[in-house]
Each structure stands twice: as structure tokens, then as C-alpha cells.
């Protein structure tokens, strides 16, 4: 059976056995319990995470202490604070686990090594980054353009499994609505 | 004197004369007058643009016909509808020129050719894409977290030249506030 990370990479670019061994050598496994942190505000996010199994969220608090969700991450998703990771400056956000989670991580240093030595992996992450950028652009369009009901429907259509795995109040925090509004949308 | 695109690329990665000639061979020059379109809603954005001289904006209309600005672009900025460009599907946004503009563009096909043949350019755009993603993430954080006054101050600090070159009503459309609110922020 193929390693799940290899299956994931090969959705974009084929790699040989040797190449995959070389790639995997740059990653480390990590187990985290529910509520444990991957990234904390004020600290440098030095690792990018790939979710093997589990569910995580990135989020921040506004000045009134209200939680806003930036992104959820489940199996096969990449997550970190990309600003902190890329620029190696303190993070503005938190990432923690919504479920006990099994992860692979790559350090900033190892990712630089791997991408500079291996065009295929530069290409893989370039493509992933493009799709990440598209998702963020659509989030902005949606925040500026759509009603709460429309944002709810888009999220439900894209990620139906989220609604099974994530508490309602976090769905509300992602959509930027109150839990009461969410209950009405839910009907 | 070095070509401005070469100077721009070499902020990230050094290239030889031959490499730069090869790169430049994938681009074409384009002159556009004020108000002319680079990208139109419903059409596929098949080109990525680099602004040699001038000023452009990407924007869309909400259901009430209100204009929202996604991004401005000035000298040395890259712009297209990345969702349409990457997935080759019809665009959801418009991009037009705020000033008479001089551009270089690369087609989707040429960009694929260039990046697959030349690791350095894959690396260049991967880095650019990372920074584009960071800008979008900060835009989301700012939309969810900050007051209009704070968003105004951030924009002014980052891009003071925008306030000289772009009409006030467009700054308001970027910040998501009315022109009246903007006048008060301006005081």
C-alpha cells in the first residue's frame, strides 16, 4: 500500500520510490491530543503540518475577545501560519486540534532544502500554494459579497464532513455569525 | 541598464543573461489606456500581467450592484484572476486600468512551459505566490478583526502612493466603507 503522503503528492506529480523516500526523510511524525496547539500567537511557526488523521483549526481573537476561524484542516490538508512560516516572524494566530490528530510536519529549513534540491516538490507546493490562494480569494469575495445564508450553503456544499465533525459554535465563528443566526440558517 | 523585469526577478533569484533572454521570450508587451479591461467577468483569464508602469484594480460587484475592490496593482505588481488563470474557468471578477498602463503578460501555456523547464522560475513564482497568499490572509484577518479606521491606517502605511494615485471612492470600495466614512477617517 502506498504511503498516504505519496498518494497525496501523486495527485499532482508522479515520484519514484527513491524520490519519495528522499521526500519523506524531510518529514517527522507527530501525535497531538485534542486541544493541543500546533501554532501559538507570538511564537514563530517553524513547521508546516500535513494532517494524516484528525481535525485542526486556525483562529485568532479580535479586540473584544471574539474568536474568528481562519481555516479548518482535516485529512490531507496542509496547515500552518504561512506568514509566520514564510517570513519567520511571530505568529498572529493560533492553530489547535479539534480531535486527537496524527500529523506529519516539515520544518522551514527542511522545506527550503527539499524545494531547492527537487524541482518536483517546488512544483507540488507551488500548485498547492496557488490553490490556497484561490481559497483565500474566494473567502474574501464571500465575506464582502455574500449573505450569511449563502456563506453557510457554500461551506456545506464544499465540506459536508465539517458539519459532522466540528461543533456548531465553530462553524458560526468561521462564517462570522452568531450561534443563534447559525441555528436559523440550519433549519 | 538592466531590464526592469530582470531587476524584479533578481530581488528573489539571480539569473544569467541567457536565462533572462529565455524568460523574457515567454512574455509579450501590452499597452492599455485608462478604463480598458485586462480581465472580464465570465471570460477566462488566460494571462498573468506584470505592471511595468501604471495602475490597475481588480474588483467585482455584489448583488446590489455595489463595487468591491479586491486588489490594486502598480509598478512591479503581478495581477490576474488567479482562480480563473489556474483552473482555466470563467472569471468572477474584473481587472481594469486606473491609468494608461504599460504591461508585460505571460499566457497560462507559456507560464506552464517556463516553470516546468526552469526550476528558478518555478521558485520565483512559488515565492511570489506565498507572499500573495500572506497578503490575502492579512486582508481576511483585517476584514474580520479591524475597524475601518485601522484598515485605513494599515493601507496608508503600506501603500502611501495609492492615496496619491487612486480616487477616494475606490479607496473606500477597497476598505468596504462609504465615501462619507472615508472622509471622516481622512481627517
From TrEMBL, chains A, B:
InterPro entries: cNMP-bd_dom (IPR000595), cNMP-bd_dom_sf (IPR018490), RmlC-like_jellyroll (IPR014710). Signal peptide: none annotated. Residues 33-115 form the Cyclic nucleotide-binding domain. It comes from the Bacteria. It holds the Pfam family cNMP_binding. This is Crp/Fnr family transcriptional regulator. It comes from Flagellimonas allohymeniacidonis.
